[in-house]
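Data card: per-record layout.
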Amino acid sequence: MQKTGGPQRVVRVFGVGVLAVSLLVGFGSVASNAEDVPDLAAATPTPTASTPAPEATEETADPDTTTETPDPTVKAADNPYGTNYPVTLETNFARPYKAISSPSNSDFSQLNDLERIIRGSYKDPRTGKVRPSSVRKSNSVFMSISRMENSYRVGRELIRAAKAGVKVRVIHGKASQSKESRALQRALDKSSLRDSNFKICSKGKSLACLSGLNGAIMHSKILLVSNTFTRDNKPAKAAIWSGSANLGGPSGERTYNNGLTVYNDKKLWYETRQMWDDMYAERNVGNNYLRYIDKNATRYGITESDRTKFGYTKADPNYGMFYSNLANVTIYATPILATPTNGKDPVLNLLNRVVPDDQCRIRLQENRFKYRRIAVAQKLVQLADQGCKVSIVGFEDDLKVNRIAHCQQYIRVCRPILDVFKTASRRIEAAWAKPHDKTILVEAKLKKNRLNPEEVAIDGTKYNDWPNDGIRTKMVQAGSAALTGSNLVVSDEITTETIDPAVYEDYLQHWKAILKSNEYHSYPY
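The structure for this 525-residue chain is written out next.
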């Protein structure tokens, strides 16, 4: 592995061993908004039968359809899209020193990066010129966003891409429409544009795309671009971004946020593109999307020939989540019918893998931590009692309306969670600031991943070979899903995991940065 282009870019060169896996992403909301809704009833809904998948309403855009002059400066081994396209990971963050109180405190870093990825679909950053018409017309941009009030930054690039002839599709949550989202909808739905569309999902009492459950919302934050450029202007295919940020000012610009972009990984591209098609088509997946994916695994996978040629561990997502040993990334999509005891909660799954000792370190940077996830708090206490150092930074609620909707106190770590923390023999550190992140960082020995048996350690070692002692690992879990009951079980969410050491270091610096932010204060409980 080679890391280039500054502290936030990782380039993987294939042929150096099998690498591995997983990352999570969560989301809560910040100012008063429709997304800040109470958790749903505790009763677990009855699963509905998976239905055969209808014909996709959107064809799976294949980055192979666009070709340009190879970049002679790239000297990589064999890769899914050729030697000029090494599998690459990039992190991006928003870190305002002051947050939410004023637009003047905004940090546009993450939204700028999203604009850059979209802009690469129609403009070459190396020359500043518009890309050839054949490239633009064969290119595609697919995005899902939860909300975008007070935001024009990313929407304007989506419009420019559509005007340039790029195929553009946007999914937006019905629960959180705004004048900005309606303006973007009008712009993309104009008949004068070649191929663009803005969709709002709604399935009866559900406001989600995948989940049909009462009260569910579409909360995934995804950007897929079939042909673009990396941050250091290298041509890239199959760009997949997921993260915690909305596009609006109160969230995307004025609170801490994180994201991860994967380039040039063919297997992850086909899997996530099919997932996006499922959302766009509002598939009837019941309340267990992992099971639905598993039953229809071949529709999401690559060919067996490509699996063998490029060294993937499996061609299809046989366990319901999307995993690439080349990118070292796992993606979980909800709804997943998780409970504290059935092993499907990615957060508890990660914490249950930890072998505690005096070197174990767990950091949580969370927008919300509500009482229906009390099993997570109990597990953190158990790990703290056994030697792990555990710390959490939660969101500080300035607005009374949000305090009423959430934890009825200034910190969005609810009182029942804090009461559990009090029982730890080794104090769990708590603080508040302005994180919109849904991130857990773990440095510990980890046992095998029961949700993803494919996963291997960073050196290619199988976790199953170390059933008792575990393997010393640095893990990032991030995404769109906050630590609430509804965000885990009901709504459309994305959770990601990775054990890439360079990505972990970037997220650790993100953690250290919030400790220095203006709003950071220890919270006595």
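Known properties of this structure: The domain at 9-15+42-282 is CATH 3.30.870.10 (Endonuclease; Chain A). DSSP finds 15 helices and 21 strands in the chain.

See the next section for split statistics.
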